[in-house]
Amino acid sequence: MIASDDNFLLQQDGHVATITINRAEQHNTWHPSEMGPVFERMVRACADNDSVRVIVITGAGRFFCTGADVQALKAAQQCGVNPFPARERNDDDFNQRYSFLMSIPKPVICAINGAAVGIGMVLPLFCDIRYAASSAKLSAAFARRGLVAEHGIAWLLSRLIGLPRAMEWLMSGRTLGAEEAERFGLVNAVFADDSFQADVMRCAQELANNVSPRSVRIIKRQVYEGTRQSLAQAVHEAEDELQGCILSEDLKEGVAHFLEKRPARFTGR
């Protein structure tokens, strides 16, 4: 697995890997050309590591990520160039600059521990589960900076919170508090600041230890592929997957631990 670098910390606790944006003195601002490729390699390394079952993404200190590095944006504007490094274009919905998170065959949890602005709001949207600290602020301030809804979030937001709310939030560029974000369905739960990291880790460990990694891997793919399938296609895919479940070690263990009233010992096979 890729080790930590100057901008990220990578830690593992049991089956849970945590990637922390580690630029607290800069409010965890995002430098696209330096941080984007490293972040993707780090996530993919966690995906390839069989000992990791859940990936958590969070920020160091009081902020999650307060957007793109302003100096990088200023330099790009002066040069008239796009600050985001070139990425070969393809037609795979789940292999774009940040949507690759949706193709990772493990749950990806975003722990929004503080302000999330701009690109700091894009990252959570492409995660599978989002938890926010009670003091967190979420801002899609693109229109207030003369920018557009970046990296496909215009497509994604309407599916997450409905078209009217997505339209209003993106057009206004206003900031949402954690509780309003929860009412919108933008975050799954809000936890108190003083217990936030412990609460997120409790949820992550629950996923890592008490459900079948094999089932979660397939369910995640089913849910995202369902955004571009007919109902009949989704039914047929589920029927095809069922045969593999019947033969799997995880189904055998799922039945055994239930009948024996003991903790599960899933292998992911």
Describe the protein.
The protein has 269 residues and is of the alpha/beta class. It is built from ten helices and ten strands. The strands form two sheets. Strands 1-2-3-5-7-10 form a six-stranded mixed β-sheet, with helices on both faces. The chain has a four-stranded mixed β-sheet with strand order 4-6-8-9. Helix 8 packs antiparallel against helix 9. The two termini are 22 Å apart. The mean pLDDT is 90. It comes from Delftia tsuruhatensis.
Question: What does the secondary structure layout of this molecule look like, with pairings?
Answer:
Layout: E1 8-13, E2 16-21, H1 32-48, E3 54-59, E4 63-65, H2 70-79, E5 108-112, E6 115-117, H3 119-125, E7 129-133, E8 137-139, H4 153-161, H5 163-172, E9 175-177, H6 178-184, E10 189-191, H7 196-210, H8 213-225, H9 231-246, H10 249-260
Parallel strand pairs: 2-3, 3-5, 4-6, 5-7, 6-8, 7-10
Antiparallel strand pairs: 1-2, 8-9
How would you summarize what this structure contains?
The chain has 269 residues and is of the alpha/beta class. The chain contains ten helices and ten strands. The protein starts with 7 loop residues before the first strand and ends in a 9-residue tail after the last helix.
Tags for this model:
about 45% helix; 10 helices; Enoyl-CoA_hydra/iso; about 270 residues; ClpP/crotonase-like_dom_sf; ECH/Chromodomain_protein; alpha/beta; 6-stranded mixed beta sheet
